[in-house]
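REQUEST FORM: STRUCTURE PREDICTION
Request ID: SP-0412
Submitted by: Lab K.M.
Chain count: 1
Length (residues): 83
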Amino acid sequence: MEEPAFWLRQELFLQPRDARNLSVQFENYKKTELAGWFPYLRTIEAYSPESGDLRLSIELNDVEFNVPKSFRFEIPKHYKPAE
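STATUS: Completed
RESULT:
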């Protein structure tokens, strides 16, 4: 069997009672060193009666895996520990 036979092509989430749906499509797979085949193009489509249709395409140019990232994080002084 060829590797593309195992690629995730689409995720579909439905709420028939509320007439809502969400679809996420995965395309443009490329082989990566650490994660195997990875989809560089994701298309998200959603519908709800309240907000109508939405279509969003995200195309990635480069990805990094397991790279440490640092970010500043401070707990405000007025927060108290949970007991």
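NOTES: The CA atoms of residues 20 and 51 lie 10 Å apart.
Reviewed by: T.R.
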